[in-house]
Amino acid sequence: MRLFCLLLAALVVPGSAMLATPAVAADFAIQEESGEHIDVLYKDRVVLRLMTANDTSDDESAQKTYKVYAHVMDPSDPDNQRTLTKGAGSKFTHHRGIFIEFSRANVDGVGGVDTWHMKNGVRQQLGKIAKQEVGDDKATLTVAVDWVKDDRPLLAEERTFVVHKPEKNGAVLIDVMSKITATKGDTVLKGDPEHTGLQYRAHEEVVKNKSAKYLFPEGAKPGNGGTKDMPWAAMTYQAHDNDYYVQHMSHPSLPEGNIYSAYRDYGRFGAYFVKELAKGETATFKVRFYVSPGKFPEDAVKAMNGRYEAYVTEVD
Asked: Considering the entire predicted model, what is its pTM?
């Protein structure tokens, strides 16, 4: 089809009715199922699914849909239905896919707000799709997310996902950028290393098989009293009778002093940071994920150091 389009364009006679080369479909696509999710597809397979439902008709539905988060899909599933990440329910229902939260945020005029456990009327709600671009090598999806408490605005966010062309085995790079604006008043985004930050939660099977194991740069240690501003952490786990591993990369622009939580056997990990914002001020948080089938490869630390260096070179 691509060759046909190029040949057709070459045969157009100047001055004829056909004024432009016919559009060639990109390998990536973005599709929305309104009120449910937004899919990023590569060659007709869903790679990333952003969950956007917001149903407050009853308590159970409200709990299931109180945050916007992203699933990473299983590249080994022929039906393209399985996820590698956890949704609502199971142990710690508030851990869902790729998500960003702060357990002890403080918003002027509102007070303490727990956007990690989503307590006391706190919700994240899809505003709109702000940007979508697709090509053969990557897709970019930006959505506006409203953080509210009892339907009153707390924070405004623009969350961007850049999904890169998957490798032959289905491994994929996913860039996440969260731009949060203090719209209500002066705000402190904070919590603790266990309940704050931009995180990844593995599939719920890991609760039972306790297969999550972690890897760090040489000499580095996670958690309080460990290494601050660690560039990356990685986790391997088992789900759907297969092995997978994830590298979480923290961009150097994250607030200094950030701390990785990366030791839970049920498979939740990410970097904790604190940021103070004056009313109207915006902060940007950047993280890259590499999600791959298989166990950690040989020379894994060397490979992950190289992948991190590529990240900081490619993304300002």
From this structure: 0.91
